[in-house]
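tool_call: predict_structure(chain=1)
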Amino acid sequence: LGTTMVGTLDAAGDFLGDGEGWSEIRVVSGAVKGLAAVGVTQWRLPSTVLEVDPYAEIAMETLTLGPAGALVIGDWQGHRILLRRPEGDLITLAGTGESGFSPDGTSALSARLNMPTGAVLDAAGHLYFAETQNHRVRVIPAFDTELFGRAMTAGCLYTIAGTGERGFNGDGPGARTRRMSSPMGIALEPDGGLVVVDRGNRRLRRISPSGAIATLAGGGAYMLAGTEMDALQFGDAVGGSLAQDASGNLVFVAGASLRGDRLVMLCRKSGRYFGIPMQGGTLYTLVGTLETGFNGDGPALAVNLTQPTEISFLPNGELVFVDTGGYLIRKLGGDGIVRTVAGRRLFSGLLLAARMALPAPATERELSTHVLAVTPRGGILIQTNAHGQSLVELLPR
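tool_result:
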């Protein structure tokens, strides 16, 4: 891919890499051929894991950090929202475990939810989440208060946006009268508003503190074929994951089954990001091509992706994400280069892979990568299949 990353084999046949980021290296030299290395990384796996068992039925599709290092888990298959305290105990914040719908004002612990995703806690302790299959965005206030233009009682469930009927009937005041379609990812805004991935409507939408809703990106008629376009002209498919940087810029997944998946940034504050000069109100391709697959690490706009998800920003502004098609944790650096952080790539069509001797600890594990969150110290929480429902924090060396 034209990168400056190089490496050699020593006399014993071990790969010696210069830098980090190789996710696959094939060697052909005389009689020597095959896979020499699949990872060189500066990250390590500690000896301890965060056990989630015996709650093995939890489907940890979405996970965010709550106060004091607690983990907020959207158990979308179990129709609950859970909190794992730093001490290790797991408590239910909302949901009975039974799929369904409960009206506004219902106690959170007696409410029936339907595929809760994107659960996040704000600094005040209010819990926001999307009910994907009920086509609503909802909140559970931590104390009696007024949010989004209506009075709310602590510990009860309230709708912020969506009527419950799938579809789209425009933007404007009264977000609770505006239809949504399979909302998923949520980002908290500094002013108390929310940005939501309205996945079925192929839009990013913002719910203001007053209760109005507006489209930030999507709703147009065109795919992002090049590297940039006006945000409201965009009309391609949108993934469920959403990340926001310190400047308010938003990164999400764009693409469809017949084209390659890409990570796209909606620039909201003009500046230079990942080596690209950007203007507010414009979408920019960060990673990916119009081809799906795997072609190693390197310059971001030449790297193919397959079903990227679980996007997060590191404290230093770098972007990490899961490349689901390769079972890899990958990182986009400020220099515009994609590097593999962890994971052993499973080749297409293989459910299991033989264990290989690898050159870096973090790439020795086969990963089940449906969970990813960034800790305050810059670690990356991932789920491994070596210990069932366990979380491991990857730490930079």
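agent: The chain has no helices and 35 strands. Proceeding to next step.
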